[in-house]
Fold this sequence. Notes:
This protein is of the alpha+beta class. The protein has helices at residues 40-53, 65-72, 142-148, 151-157, 177-189, 224-235, and strands spanning 7-9, 17-20, 27-30, 55-58, 93-97, 120-129, 137-141, 161-164, 194-196, 198-200, 207-209, 216-219, 244-247, 254-258, 262-266, 275-283. The chain has one domain (1-288): Double-stranded beta-helix (4-Layer Sandwich), CATH 3.60.130. The chain has 6 helices and 16 strands. Strand 10 (198-200) and strand 11 form a beta hairpin.
Amino acid sequence: MSTQAAISPVAGSRPFAVKRIGSHLGAEVIGLDLKQPLDTQTFRALELALVEHKVLYVRGANLTTKEHVDLSRNFGDLEVHPFRPEGEFPEIMVLDNYKDNPVLSTDVWHSDTTFRQKPTKYTILRSQILPEVGGDTLWCDMEAVYQRLSAPMRKFLDGLTAVHDFQNFRKLFKKTPEDQERLRKMEELYPNPIHPVIRTHPMSGRKCLYVNPQFTIRIVELDEDESRVVLDYLFQKVHVPEFQFRFRWGVGDVIFWDNSSTQHYAANDYYPNRRRMERTAVIGDSPS
């Protein structure tokens, strides 16, 4: 049996199995009803599988918004996204794109909210409305990217740090005095954090490249022109297909991913058709 076709139980007492799909990352969880509360052993097995495979999905989970939030709370405290309006469930970020509400910046490679001092640990995304064609999501394994760098390049990057900024969301603020005041408040809440260029995963202990084109603006220890050359070089690494996993959504699917070790990109090839998703995000730690 091929590696990709193999289905293996997760360590411990299991009501589910994991089918590896991608050579570096991506796996399907089979036999787990996400509508039911997770006991401690089941949750532990799910999280270990997530750290191992980096991206996990469950087909046809068909969760309600409340069930989505309740499930996500197993992983830790949830973020309330600062640039999205709050509703009945402030932990939910709605991504509803169509002709009159085009994509803002999800079609740029990124790891979620690295503009925070404590960026997103895990993201849980659920599909509600899908276009007939397009709308896939892609992930890149940043641990694999790091491992494929030459030894001298890894040595050079280890110990460097980078500034991150919510630069894509600055487009939401107009030049009016009111909006500029709101922007200043956001800058006070989220002053540019400095994260390591190479971070160590908090659970696996493995090293991952941790710069992304959406939020990373400068390497601290380099001159500006040197920083731009190095960042542009590193940003291109996500485009290697062998490091990627691509997911074709079905309505009601739920997908979990580890932001410490991946970047992702939502393909914007369905416009002007509609794609509606709901997202929760687990608060992480300060990268080290």
